[in-house]
Specification:
The chain has 937 residues and is an alpha/beta fold. The chain has three domains: 200-520, Thiamin diphosphate (ThDP)-binding fold, Pyr/PP domains (Rossmann fold, 3-Layer(aba) Sandwich), CATH 3.40.50; 554-799, Rossmann fold (3-Layer(aba) Sandwich), CATH 3.40.50; 805-933, Rossmann fold (3-Layer(aba) Sandwich), CATH 3.40.50.11610. It has 32 helices and 25 strands. It has a nine-stranded mixed β-sheet. Helix 29 (827-838) links the parallel strand 21 and strand 22 (843-848). The longest helix is centred in the N-terminal third of the chain and has 24 residues, at 200-223. It is elongated. Its cofactor is thiamine diphosphate. GO terms for molecular function: oxoglutarate dehydrogenase (succinyl-transferring) activity; thiamine pyrophosphate binding. Its EC number is 1.2.4.2. One of its GO terms (cellular component) is cytosol.
Length: 937
């Protein structure tokens, strides 16, 4: 065809000329949301050329070229816009729909107090889209709007959009990239106009929940005036919300629900959801406590568990114990759920549900929230999605101004990082609350992703009941004082609908109060015989001296070690890794002493061989930060992996090792939660460097060190912290041993510093084989991983006993000893080599391998050989104000003979944990070794 004729033909095509603007507007709507344009146009746009790395957007020059190609192809069916101004109006209507989906939440009626000042959203107004009152009676195609109709009058559509997106629910989901997820949400919200129809039974159940929430707070306020209870008043809808959530969870097949929350409303949840006996709570308020071996904790930190009856069967509920440290309980909950899912052999998350309840200031302000969201879709920490509920009382203690609380529009914006849908809902509309609860859980179950519900409410009292909120929020509290409670608002609504009379609703309140007076469970769904998700009975009542047999025959070790040291023939390991595995074959055969990596992995192999499951996480746990573990062998040809510990024998225990996200706080809290829910597994977390564990200090302080004493929660989590002074500077030397020793009391945990492969082997086996579950803190080595003296034989491993203390190993006559040097860790080898070099025979070196609980019995046995010695030294690498000196010296003073002296040999006190220069480090190290070994005459 002649070029001029072609041009004329193209310009007369329906895809050219006057229709270009229509097509481009339609395409822009498609780019915003593919579901907003008719199916036939979507098919056309879906076939446009793609730019590499971009899902939808392409260059407009390419788009126009494609349209020209479509027009030139006479045999291809194309969709044509009708002529006239109505075509442009149709595009505007589709853009209007999209505007409500994107920004309707900004005009929603969310604040029960009516204090929110929202800016005008022009996108939601008809004239912004060049639509007028004259268009209201016209019929338009509604595209993907899920009303069940292909066309609607504009006035009906506009009304439906406002009901759906600007009522009591403000939905944010257009930030989600998955078209399938967006379509699902649109269908659920738009088909009901976000205004569900509930039957009478459901409405009465909601009213009973509000009545219980209000009734408990009023009862406590009257019976214990002025006592702190961190009232739920104003956020009463949380109670029917949680009950609705659990009912629906049971109906959808969930067997367990784990809840984590801070103190706001916790007592109400304990009584009105979990089914705790009110009389027990009243006794706690009155100061009546039962006999307890621990310290106990305040009422609003306590946990609880119970069984909740639903149509789908009983659901086991657990409210996690947690401190006031705001959001730290969230990863603990996720870890607990992961353990339950693993125990139930559920890979999808369908059998256990995590529910976390946040404060509005806390979810925006605490960094562990971001860390926990970041865990949600990873292999090691996924739980199939969670339900996150924000009790948004628009106030953080005394801070209410948004610009002081956060830098985002909503407190929930952090959830957009994982593309979680967010439902803002007015708590004074409990039916809307119930509706979004159902939608949220169904979405989580369908797509296995996090969902956030922002329960916009208020706080009727101060931060606690003794505070005076009018001092800092006068206008808000003048409004709150006049505002009716949620139960009254809903009772009036149901009375107007003829669902229940005013007298009958008052009788509900009276019946609830009578239930509190009698001190019986007030939750009718609670079952008396509570099943326990895991059996801790065999681990209760044991102490450090509990007998156990850790030994294994050498032949058994050789057999297991041989399996451990092999991988498939076609699996090409890196040359350095291949050499390590060749050495491990020799070690397994008894032809070469075992190094640290072999002994450690052999300990794991013997445990999985015995049917014990092992879970290990850390930022470099598969390989090992210091290139020693290599539990995962990477194929150099195709990057596939082989894990020998998963192939020890048929029917073995599970072995899982994960390189974790770059987090300490959330990951360690997750592993704590896992270990407290699973007593039979060996659960380990390894820091990249021990120094980095300080990012998780709150977990050590609030959970690991004191969880048993505060809440009776046993935990066998093992923490491995690389520690040792090799001249690598202040942040790569010290795991802050002193901090852990400062936390030690009441036999709450173990702190060990093993120095040989046999010791790490025995220590790890002891942690699992011994029927005792307490945290184990291990100062693991760096340079000792390949130290020529840090080796062990198979015979030493076969014995399997961890030595809390190790006496002098050289052939030194105790009678000639004039000085005894106590030490722990790597410095032992520096002392040993220097003493051997000097051929000293008058100094004995005694290693303390377990610093807590301090091994007094073993110390006494060793000291029996040195009763004549009057010169004792404690030698450490750490500065004097750090390490074990200040926390442990009293044990040495108690052990040495009367009249003897105890001297410190080590670095001088320092604000920094180590020096930054290798030359300085070497001088300091040589000096402290010399100081420990030199006897002044």
């Amino acid at each position: 065809m002649h070029e001029g004729v072609m041009k004329a033909w193209l310009e007369s095509s329906h895809l050219y000329g006057g229709n270009v603007a229509y097509v481009e507007d339609l395409y822009e709507a498609y780019l915003d949301d593919a579901t907003s344009v008719p199916v036939e146009w979507r098919e056309v746009f879906d076939q446009l050329p793609r730019v590499e790395g971009v899902d939808v957007e392409v260059k407009h020059s390419e788009v126009k070229a494609q349209f020209a190609e479509l027009a030139a192809n006479k045999h291809r069916q194309v969709i044509v816009a009708s002529e006239g101004a109505g075509d442009a109006k149709q595009v505007r209507v589709l853009q209007l729909i999209n505007a409500f989906r994107f920004r309707g939440h900004q005009n929603a009626n969310l604040d029960p107090l009516g204090l929110w000042k929202r800016e005008r959203v022009r996108d939601l107004e008809l004239d912004y889209h060049e639509l007028t009152d004259a268009d209201l009676e016209k019929e338009f195609n509604v595209g993907s709007f899920a009303s069940g109709q292909e066309t609607m009058k504009l006035k009906d559509l506009y009304d439906a959009l406002k009901k759906t997106y600007c009522g009591s629910i403000g939905a944010e989901y257009m930030h989600i990239t998955s078209t399938e997820e967006k379509r699902w949400l649109q269908q659920r919200l738009e088909s009901a106009f976000s205004q569900p129809k509930f039957d009478t039974d459901t409405k009465l159940r909601i009213l009973k929940g509000l009545t219980a929430a209000d009734g408990l707070e009023k009862y406590l306020g009257a019976k214990f005036p002025g006592a702190k209870r961190f009232s739920l008043e104003g956020g009463d809808a949380l109670v029917p919300m949680l009950k609705e959530l659990i009912h629906r969870a049971g109906e959808s097949g969930q067997e367990e629900v784990v809840i984590g929350m801070a103190h706001r409303g916790r007592l109400n949840v304990l009584i009105n959801v979990m089914g705790k006996n009110p009389q027990v709570l009243f006794d706690e308020f009155a100061g009546k406590y039962g006999e307890s071996a621990g310290s106990g904790d305040v009422k609003y930190h306590m946990g609880f568990s119970s069984d909740f009856a639903t149509k789908g069967g009983n659901v086991h509920m657990a409210l996690a114990f947690n401190p006031s440290h705001l959001e730290i309980v969230n990863p603990v909950v996720m870890g607990s759920v992961r353990a339950r899912l693993d125990r139930l052999n559920c890979k999808t998350g369908s059998k256990a549900l995590p529910v976390t309840i946040h404060g509005d200031s806390a979810i925006a302000g605490q960094g562990v929230v971001q860390e926990t969201f970041n865990l949600s879709q990873t292999r090691a920490f996924g739980v199939g999605g969670s339900i996150r509920i924000v009790v948004n009382n628009q106030l953080g203690f005394t801070t209410s101004k948004q610009e002081d609380v956060r830098s985002t529009e909503y407190c929930t914006d952090i959830a957009k990082m994982v593309q979680a849908p967010i439902f803002h809902v007015n708590s004074d509309d409990p039916e809307a609350v119930a509706f979004v609860t159902q939608v949220a859980l169904d979405f989580r179950n369908q797509f296995r992703r996090d969902v956030v519900i922002d329960l916009v409410c208020y706080r009727r009292h101060g931060h606690n009941e003794a505070d005076e909120p009018n001092a800092t929020q006068p206008l808000m509290y003048q409004k709150i004082k006049k505002h009716p409670v949620p139960r009254e608002i809903y009772a009036e609504k149901l009375a107007a609908e003829g669902v229940i009379s005013s007298d009958a609703s008052k009788q509900l309140a009276e019946d609830y109060r009578n239930g509190l007076d009698t001190g019986v469970c007030v939750v009718e769904e609670i079952q008396k015989d509570t099943k326990h998700s895991s059996d801790w009975s065999k681990f209760v009542g044991h102490d450090w001296d509990t007998a156990y047999d850790p030994s294994l025959p050498v032949e058994k070790l050789k057999e297991i070690g041989g399996n451990l040291a092999s991988y498939p023939e076609g699996h090409k390991a890196h040359s350095r890794v291949a050499k390590i595995y060749e050495d491990r074959k020799l070690m397994a055969a008894g032809e070469k002493p075992l190094d640290w990596g072999m002994a450690e992995t052999l300990a794991y192999a013997t445990l999985v061989d015995a049917g014990i499951d092992i879970r290990m996480t850390g930022q470099d746990s598969g390989r090992g930060t210091f290139f020693h573990r290599h539990a995962v062998v990477h194929n150099q040809k195709d990057a596939s992996v082989y894990i020998p510990l998963q192939h020890v024998r048929e029917g073995q225990g599970a072995f899982e090792v994960y390189d974790s996200v770059l987090s300490e706080e959330a990951v360690l809290a997750f592993e704590y939660g896992y270990a407290t829910a699973e007593p039979t597994s060996l659960v380990l977390w390894e820091a990249q460097f021990g120094d980095f564990a300080n990012g998780a200090q709150v977990v050590f302080d609030q959970f690991l060190s004191s969880g048993e004493q505060k809440w009776g929660r046993l935990c066998g989590l093992t923490i491995m912290l690389p520690h040792g002074y090799e001249g690598q500077g202040p942040e790569h030397s010290s795991a802050r041993l002193e901090r852990f020793l400062q936390l030690c009391a009441d036999h709450n945990m173990q702190v060990c510093v093993p120095t040989t492969p046999a010791q790490v082997y025995a220590m790890l086996r002891r942690q699992s084989v011994r029927p005792l579950r307490r945290p184990l803190i291990v100062m693991t080595p760096k340079s000792l991983l390949r130290h020529p003296l840090a080796i062990s034989s198979l015979d030493e491993l076969a014995n399997g006993v961890f030595q809390n203390m190790i006496d002098e190993i050289d052939d030194i006559n105790p009678a000639k000893v004039e000085r005894v040097v106590f030490c722990s860790g790597k410095v032992y080898y520096d002392l040993l080599q220097e003493r051997r070099k000097a051929e000293q025979d008058n100094v004995a070196i005694v290693r303390v391998e377990q610093l807590y609980p301090f091994p007094h019995k073993e110390m006494d046995e060793i000291m029996a050989r040195y009763q004549h010695v009057r010169d004792f030294v404690w030698c450490q690498e750490e500065p004097q104000n750090q390490g074990a000196w200040y926390c442990s010296q009293h044990h040495f003073w108690d052990a040495i003979p009367k009249g003897a002296t105890l001297k410190y040999a080590g670095r001088k006190a320092s604000a920094a944990p180590a020096c930054g220069y290798l030359s300085t480090h070497n001088k300091e190290q040589a000096a402290l070794v010399a100081d420990a070994l030199t006897i002044e005459k």
